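Recall that a protein's primary structure is simply its ordered list of amino acids. Everything else, from secondary elements to tertiary packing, is in principle encoded there. The following example makes that idea concrete.
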Amino acid sequence: MAQCLTVCVPADPGYLRSLRGFIQPIFEKYWSEDDVRQFVLAIDEACSNIIKHGQSWFLPKGAISVSVQDGKRKTVVTVHNYCRAKEVEKIKPRDLDDIKPGGLGTHFIAEVMDKVEFIPCTVREGRMALVMTKNTPGKEET
């Protein structure tokens, strides 16, 4: 049976360290140190995007809620209240041949995770959640 853990931090860069500290031990059970570092960085990037883009209009700043469903076959990370539904089509990686700073976060997330999708958020109506899935090595996805 999968275990579900949730953390909620203010949408402020100063709290991303706490978020990384919450997530890292969950992934350490199944993956190498290098893999864990990539997974944590991908989740950190997703949460940084909320701070930069998803809640830039929201004053006072909102919160970032991340749920991790840790199962034997896969780990599913849900970043709640990620964006408005109409913004999903705008979220895409830029062309890697277009050399300039920034804009590579979504590309990196897609490379690291096995599945990345947006679903209607159950925490806040009208918003979308980012769901990232990583299959456990040697196990089939179910």
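Helices lie at 16-27, 33-54, 105-112. The mean pLDDT is 82.
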